[in-house]
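User: Hi! I'm working on a homework problem where we have to compare a predicted structure to a textbook description. Could you give me the structure for the chain below?
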Amino acid sequence: MKSLAIEREFGSGGRAIGMEVAKLAGIPYYDGNLLLKAAEDYGIRIDLLKNYDENKTGSVLYNIAMLTSVNRYENQMKINEMFYGIQETILKLEKEGPAVFIGRCSTEILKSSSKVLRVFIYSSDMYKKTCRVMETEEVSKPEAKRLMERKDRQRERYFKFWTQQDWKDRNNYDMEMDTGILSIEECAEILLAKMK
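Assistant: Happy to help. Predicted structure tokens:
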């Protein structure tokens, strides 16, 4: 069985799909908790990881702050150390056996492995996507739309910052799935069949 690496639009249900695949296959599931594991394995301070995660790395304000920072070399070294920790953790976990990896450039980190299915999950149905965000995040419709735009922009910049690749480029993935058409359960079943 192959591992599964997922990049996803915010509100597409990518996390739920990954969790469902992991449950059906009986394999581990890894998402943002990888940051904590990387911190433990590589001695990186957890407060640093929180400061330089997807939300900031690669943003315009972050880049300006890095260029003007007195300690920019030291900060850049810490940030690179953090990403190296995440990358090494993903590679080690994948070697231990099949698993599901969500985000954190896992599709790019694992691209050289023939034992990994790399997938981008999106939704062509803005109504379904907005409703999903309203429900999971417990926000109003206008706030859900703002949140989707902001989170996708952050994910796109994070991916570009670390990989120099376009997050939405189909060539970065083995397949794409549209949750505007397919249900979470249908996506999980299709992916599980492809992984086998």
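For your comparison, note the following. The longest strand covers residues 116-122. The longest helix spans residues 72-96. Good luck with the assignment!
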